[in-house]
Amino acid sequence: MIIGSHVSFKKDTQLLGSVKEALSYGSTTFMFYTGAPQNTTRQPIDDELTKKGLNLMKENNIDINNVVVHAPYIINMASNNDFAVTFLKEEIKRVEQLGMTKLVLHPGSSVKLSEEEGIKNIIDNLNKVGKSNVTICLETMAGKGTELGKNFEELKKIIDGVDYELGVCLDTCHINDAGYDITNFDEVLKEFDKIIGLKYLKCVHINDSKNIINSHKDRHENIGFGNLGFDNLIKIIYNDKLKDVPKILETPYVTLNNESKERLFPPYKFEIAMILNKKFDPDLINEIRNYYK
Ligand code: FE
Ligand code: FE
Ligand code: ZN
After folding, report:
1. Which residues contact 260 (CB under 8 A, 6 or more apart)?
2. What's the fold here for domain 3-253?
3. Ligand nearest to the CA of 171
4. Ligand 1 centre and the CA of 260: distance in Å?
5. Is the pTM for the entire model greater than 0.90?
């Protein structure tokens, strides 16, 4: 099972810290941002920490090709600005320097443009970024606001317009919120295969959703605690067609209010254990609090 979660990438520990965090959750892969997800401030990559991180991955049989980097979500490739292009080029260099091969990207939001213009900008901007050794994986979006990439047809248009090969990252919360019925996941995959092609699927984000189908909200929930439910998510995670695709949890941290101070705990160690056991634990949230407090 190729499963892991979003982990941090800290200034002073970088990749080595990310690998250690992933291993502490019992993960066999992981995903990280090369800096804060909500801004574009980035530190130079420290080759010494990268080497140590890669060695630790090797010792623990983590395949570098299953590791995923996520581009910051504030760059908007659907807009008409060169900043997004320049930043993404720089980001790809960082991903290459780390030795990674997969970069997840939110396609962008049309904002005041038409959807057609937005999609055209995404295509033009990705063509300006150009081909590299890193596969840019467009994420399936919830369709919140003016987000593009909210259905397989839009992703297919972008894939066809770009003059090098892209991949796709399917997010279970997002496709539910976008209107796909994940209770019939085999049908969803069939449609994905028909419109885009299963070989383009390079990553799956495993998240439950706080909202119902077609809500266009994008609010993640812990595994089994949302509208997708444990059994449906297990069917997706163990789907034979996704056997070789890395599965990444992006579920919310568990909160604990203590002396008027809010503390946050990562749920991933417990969610991964529950997934491997294939048995829902209704008391999971309290167990996480008790473990970390
Ligand atoms: Fe994402
Ligand atoms: Fe996601
Ligand atoms: Zn999301």
Report:
1. none
2. TIM Barrel (3.20.20)
3. 2
4. 31
5. yes
